[in-house]
């Protein structure tokens, strides 16, 4: 098939099924590999659920890179059985908070963290680790991340920097609008309030709605009330 059906997590409204183009997934994967300068035939580590876009894209990136990929069960601590050096891995903040004190944490050379807010205390811990850690911004609708910030350099620059194929703007409410021809996105208005701070850079302020982001899963308070 030329398209894959995925379920959104609720970043741009109630969760729904959407179809994304395989070519756009490949473009997203190539952009990430180029951004992080990951050499071909590296070793990848995937510990995110494959049913969500984060896990799917780790597989696509590994295929594009011709990488070895280590699959770990998506648990709170995915490093329990990791005994090999890893060039590239992805986790949620919850997973990082459980894995950071493991002896093998620094076996990971580059780590992207997405799906929720990272606490200031966790950022401080990551600064002292050999692992290069990056916080990502993205959603299912943008086929994983479209902006990144380096957590080791967060004191000098706390803002997100968009990947080359992405352009951004805001509407009068301050909501982030994303465009990327490579991803097939003409104009996507998010529910996130941001401040554009420079060329392809923005500061994340918060959400316009009341949506709760818990480990990358979006929960509506109104649904909990019922």
Please tag this protein with its features.
globular; 38% strand; 5 helices; alpha/beta; 226 residues; 21% helix
Please give a quick description of this structure.
The chain is built from five helices and 15 strands. With 226 residues, it is of the alpha/beta class.
Mean of residue pLDDT values = 93
Sum up the overall morphology in one term: globular
Main sheet properties: 11 strands, mixed
Task: Please give the radius of gyration in angstroms.
Answer: 17 Å
Q: H/E order of the elements?
A: EEHEHEEHEHEEEEEEEEEH
- From the N-terminal CA to the C-terminal CA, the straight-line distance is 39 Å
Strand order of the largest sheet: 4-3-5-6-7-8-9-13-12-11-10
Q: Residue share in helices?
A: 10-25%
Given the structure, what is the number of helices?
Answer: 5
- Give me the count of strands: 15
Structural class: alpha/beta
- Uncertain segments of ≥5 residues (pLDDT<50)? none
How would you classify the quaternary structure? single chain
Strand content: 35-45%
């Amino acid at each position: 098939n030329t398209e894959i059906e995925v379920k959104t997590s609720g970043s741009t409204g109630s969760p729904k099924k959407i179809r994304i183009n395989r070519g756009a997934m490949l473009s997203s994967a190539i952009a990430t590999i180029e951004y992080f300068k990951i050499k071909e035939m590296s070793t990848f580590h995937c510990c995110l659920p494959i049913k969500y876009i984060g896990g799917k894209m780790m597989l696509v990136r590994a295929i594009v890179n011709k990488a070895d990929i280590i699959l770990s069960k998506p648990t709170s601590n995915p490093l329990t059985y990791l005994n090999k050096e890893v060039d590239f891995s992805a986790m949620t903040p919850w997973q990082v908070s459980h894995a950071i004190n493991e002896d093998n944490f620094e076996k990971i050379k580059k780590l992207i963290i997405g799906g929720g807010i990272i606490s200031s205390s966790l950022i401080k811990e990551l600064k002292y680790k050999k692992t290069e850690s990056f916080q990502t911004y993205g959603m299912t609708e943008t086929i994983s991340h479209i902006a990144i910030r380096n957590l080791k350099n967060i004191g000098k620059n706390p803002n997100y920097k968009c990947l080359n194929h992405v352009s951004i703007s805001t509407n009068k409410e301050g909501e982030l609008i994303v465009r990327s021809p490579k991803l097939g996105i003409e104009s996507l208005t998010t529910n996130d309030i941001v401040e554009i701070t420079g060329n392809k850079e923005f500061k994340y302020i918060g959400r316009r709605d009341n949506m709760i982001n818990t480990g990358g899963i979006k929960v509506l308070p109104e649904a909990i009330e019922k």
